[in-house]
Each structure stands twice: as structure tokens, then as C-alpha cells.
Amino acid sequence: MKTISRRSRQSSRRLRPPAIRPRLSASKQRLAEAIENAKPGKGPDDSWATTDLDVNDDDVVDKGDLEALEQSEASAGADGEAPDS
To answer: What is the sign of the dihedral through the CA atoms of 81, 61, 43 and 30?
Structure first.
């Protein structure tokens, strides 16, 4: 028969006191749910807005591109659309 020392039993109790067990179980469950929801196809929908900041198509986003964007936003209406002529 294997004998477990008193010190060994005490150290194992310190690692997982009974009050932590329910919290540990709940944390494991939340982690499993987060992992399940992080799989491909379960993220946010693909309706995110994107924009191409390189407005002059020189493959560089620089001050000129940003100034052109500011000008186009300033001339756009409140809904982001250019006003009717």
C-alpha cells in the first residue's frame, strides 16, 4: 500500500481548494465555448466596411491620398453620398 505524506496531501489541497472547483469548472466551460465560437465561419459577418486609402493608385498611401479623402468627405453629404447636382 502506498503511503502519502501529510505534506503531500496539504500541498494538493492548496492547489485546488473546494471553493475554487466550481469557478474552475465554469472557467473551463467558458473557455470551451470561446474556442468553439472562434472557429472559422462563426465570427462576425462579412458586412464590415472597407476602403482603399490609395486614392491615386500609386501603391502608396501618403499625405496626398489622405488630403484627397478629406476633400471628398467634406464635399459628401451627411449620409456619405455626394450631393445631387
So the answer is: negative
